[in-house]
Amino acid sequence: MIIDFHTHAFPEKIVEKAMRTLIHNAGNAIPFTDGTAAGLLKYMDANGIDKAVVLNIATNPKQQHNVNDFAASINSDRLISFGSVHPDAPDAIEELHRIKEMGLKGIKLHPDYQGFFVDDEKLLPIYETIDKLGLVLVFHAGVDIQYFEPVHCPPQRLCRVLSAFPGGRVVTAHMGGYLQWYDVEKYLVGKNLYLDTSYSYSRMPSPHAARIIRAHGTDKVLFGSDMPWSGTALEKRFIESLELDADAEAGILGENARRLLGL
To answer: Which residue of 30, 65, 131, 229 has the fewest C-beta atoms within 10 A of its own C-beta?
Structure first.
């Protein structure tokens, strides 16, 4: 089974505007889908991907209800949709309970888009609630190419908040911190969290990635692409380039995610 743990899709009524803005802000990037859930499924069918986790982000406090309603509307056997809350929303804790009640399995937080540092104490009640509800939490980690400075979720700051997640259901995107992989080795490797491999193909040297993965533990690594911004098929080639043993590769490509998500 192949599970892409890091993908994105947008509601059809805003997808054209959202994609146009993101393409422009990312240096005229060429997307691999049209940004819709249907487009993602079409790509998955064409490339042998069994399931995908769709990460949604509430970029302002008033948006979180609509974001989570959309997440619930596309949640299915193949598209495992995550919700989001905004730290500045007065009802963020209540919304976490609603997300759980809607049957969503996780949360995505993007400290750069949402304007908070990952170790800000105001986030602790949110973190503790996510953990108590048994939800998986995915952080964007490291540099974001649209918001280069400051980096709101570097490995050193992320390390400081891991004690808030005794359940160990924390996933740090982009191999623990995009473009900050030496700090990932220093602060995160071996800790009680998962790394996802998204947006690594042609960007991260394979020997460096293999060293981090082996040191961290192959059972704590999840395959991801960042679709539509990097192709799942290309990111799968990256995993295959790491020269891991067959069991480790199979775990990263799907079994670890299956276990984490309780599928």
So the answer is: 30
